[in-house]
Amino acid sequence: MIRTPLRPLARILRAREKGENPDVIEAENLAQRHAVIQDAARGRAQGRLTIMAMAFVVAFGAVGVRMGTLAAAQPTEPSAMASSAAIISQRADITDRHGRVLATNLLTHSLYAHPRQMVDPEGAAKKLAAIFPDLSLERLQKDFSGKRSFVWIKKKISPEQMQAVHDIGEPGLLFGPREMRLYPNGRIASHILGGSTFGKEDVASAEVIGVAGVEKAFDRWLRDPGNDGAPLTLSLDLSAQAAMEEVLANGMKVMNAKGATGILMEVKTGEIVAMASLPDFDPNDRPRPLLKGDPSDSPLFNRAVQGQYELGSTFKIFPVAQAIDLKLVSPTTMINANAPMKIGKYLINEFRGHNYGTLSVTDIIVKSSNVGTVRVAQLLGPERQKDLLEKLGFFEPTPIEMSEGPTGKPLVPKRWPAVTSATVAFGHGLAASPLHLATAYATVANGGKRVTPTLIHDRTRREGEQVLSPSAAHTAVQLLRQVVIRGSGRSANVEGYEVAGKTGTADKPRPTGGYYGNKVVSTFASTFPASDPQYVLVLSLDEPSAIGAGGESRTAGATSAPVAAEVIRRVAPLLGLRPQVEKPLPMIERPLDDELKLVSN
Amino acid sequence: MRSVLYLLTTLAVMGMAFWAYRENYATQAALQEMTHVQREIGTLREDLGVLRAEWSYLNRPDRLRELVNLNFEKLKLVPFTSDQFVEVGQVAFPRPAAPVVSATGTDAMPIERPAGFPPMRPQERMP
């Protein structure tokens, strides 16, 4: 940069010649120089100011945005601290549909020992054996005096026992916290809940894992911390379940049965309100599974879901309903039901060698005629019969949310010749669980829309496909109502609840082949009230025999049906189902004073 | 004038610093209290879980049934049956309340039901 001199000689000389003041020139140049310097300084200051302003804008903007978000967001506690309270229990509770607890957790302690830190191993072993009678003294002494540095003594101890162990005063005995699973209702709903056990164990904590039933099927869900401690709400109703188990246990005793099972299902939703299988067990102290013999003799066996029984005459309604649906017959169509009937080399007989002659379709169901049902099934043909049974869910395991669900696969004949088609029509040759039957009856009672059984309350579900037309399904329910009014199910009639159902007595198959002559499975499948079906009840007794006025009887009409009636009598009011009372009599006005009668025709 | 301004600014900064210092400690105290309260909530929830388990254990249907059988003489409770449903029209209106006697008696306590009256049935509680 060329610096301009303040007093350039040329201009000064010229100014002196003209007699002007040369200092003006100097002042002018000085002013120019100052202006340049000021410009540069201003530029720098402006830059600094901009940067400062930016910094302030950013800082205050950040504060403003933070204040805005704080004001707009939900008030929460600082996240750094929230983790301590969120994890309360590692496994969610299980409740019934009204929120009554079926399974919960309880904090207890486990007891373990560090033998090398023990002061008096001998004395400690003796005192421990006195507190816990189930521990062997020799074993404890051996553990404490050996080389081991760590010994588990008890997985769960009560607070009283813990205090007693504290009182020993042995520093080598230590406690670890344990969350244990508690089923406060004991045996009620034991098969549904299943049970739980400890998985990976540690001194500080142990994993609780489900071993059966809902506990196993929903193991992941129950342990998911993302549910925020929400309980698993089952569709069961605790009081209905308890009442049903009580009635079933009494019925089993009166009917001398080996086992019993009952399923009560909501027709519209497929939700299971009560499901029991006797004998049962206590899930707090789950017995070990049988290692030999028939697994169905174990109390762990869930007859309702895992059982595979030929369900007998309860199946008769399916071919009849299908034939009505296809307009092949009507309830009044007369069918030749002369017994015995010959199919190939097999003879189809009626119960106790009856011969009903010609029967209407209604009477085939009411009198439970095997031959009549076979004739109706022959009208359908095996293909259509198979198709309906498949749509009703008899060919695959039920989709119930229990770990045992997939094991209840029905035994379906591989080939479908004429004789199989005939026997399946009256419920022999196809073995399914009572839950299958309940689902199929619910489908019929639901106006022919397919129902899926579920144990979860209030879940949104898809509308089922239409398996039967609503009118055929309605007619089928009316036929079932006739069975209870004047047929084999008369003992199941409950005043006010319009029970509609079908009895079924099936001989038990021998493991060696053939059938037992004196062992049966008697089943009563029903829906009520018939005018607007709300619930389906399937009740099955294993090897019952009722001793009544006419001697010993094993038919379902004498064994399962009365027990089912008692179940409905007890449970329906608990579910808030009002009895249907007769239509009120018309009110008759007092005659008019002038004796005038109004008559209309 | 300028020095007064400087003095005031310095005082303001010191005041703000003191306020921020106190605020910092107050926040820490609040956080500590919150941890404490949360731990308390945790133990209370645990207790609640125990109480809930105990409640459902004491109310298990088996025990209630046993208690009903033991106290049958006094309570006369029988299973709920269908004939206990009645039409709303059949339920009698409550009698008009008796005029309150400005009694000096000791038994002026309001009681919901007179002694000897049967206990409330479930449907009576329904609206």
TrEMBL record, chain A:
InterPro entries: Beta-lactam/transpept, Beta-lactam/transpept-like, PBP_dimer, PBP_dimer_sf, PCN-bd_Tpept. The keyword Chaperone does not apply. This is Cell division protein FtsI (Penicillin-binding protein 3). Gene3D superfamilies: 3.30.450.330, DD-peptidase/beta-lactamase superfamily, Penicillin-binding protein 2a (Domain 2). Its main location: membrane. GO terms for cellular component: plasma membrane. GO terms for biological process: cell division; cell wall organization. Coiled coil: none annotated. Residues 89-223 form the Penicillin-binding protein dimerisation domain. Keywords: Carboxypeptidase, Cell cycle, Cell division, Hydrolase, Membrane, Protease. Residues 262-567 form the Penicillin-binding protein transpeptidase domain. It comes from Paracoccus laeviglucosivorans. It is found in: Membrane. The keyword Cytoplasm does not apply. It comes from the Bacteria.
From TrEMBL, chain B:
Residues 108-127 are annotated as: Disordered. It comes from the Bacteria. This is Cell division protein FtsL. It comes from Paracoccus laeviglucosivorans.
